[in-house]
Design a protein that fits this description.
The chain contains 3 helices and 7 strands. With 126 residues, it is an alpha+beta fold. The chain folds into 2 domains: 73 residues, no CATH class; 47 residues, no CATH class. The strands form 2 sheets. A 5-stranded antiparallel β-sheet has the order 1-5-4-3-2. A two-stranded antiparallel sheet has the order 6-7. The structure holds zinc ion (2 copies).
Length: 126
């Protein structure tokens, strides 16, 4: 039995990346994105799993994906934003202090999730 169904669209690959992907089969990889595409052996859920994020003192994130054909173009930002917001314990009532930004700031922070975390490395140019 795998845990894919219980997991969110964005998860940290814990306790270790190797452990997280141990029941997964590797389908593809991208050296440009520093990520690999996996399929769960039990439920066939596709996952994008980052690699080498620890070089940036970040945890490797894993993202659920449905369209594995276009996985390199998959926008991971919505799932990542959701994860970051829950990491911060939610949003506060204040607006982001970034000029022109109307998003709500993260709890105990002055800025919103986009402006507080410049780690949206995929799809950020579109
Ligand atoms: Zn699974
Ligand atoms: Zn903002």
């Amino acid at each position: 039995m795998c845990k894919c169904k219980e997991l969110n669209d964005c998860e940290e690959a814990l306790p270790t990346r190797d452990d997280f992907i141990k029941e997964f089969r590797k389908l593809d990889s991208s050296s440009e994105l520093w990520a690999e595409l996996f399929a769960c052996d039990s439920c066939r859920q596709r996952w994008i799993v980052e690699e080498r994020a620890e070089a940036d003192h970040q945890s490797n994130k894993a993202f659920k994906i449905d369209d594995s054909v276009n996985w390199l173009k998959h926008d991971t930002r919505p799932a990542l934003a959701e994860w970051l917001i829950s990491e911060h314990g939610g949003l506060c009532e204040q607006q982001c202090t970034f000029t022109g930004c109307e998003a709500k700031a993260l709890k105990n922070m002055a800025v919103c999730v986009q402006h507080g975390h410049p780690i949206y490395k995929w799809g950020s140019t579109t």
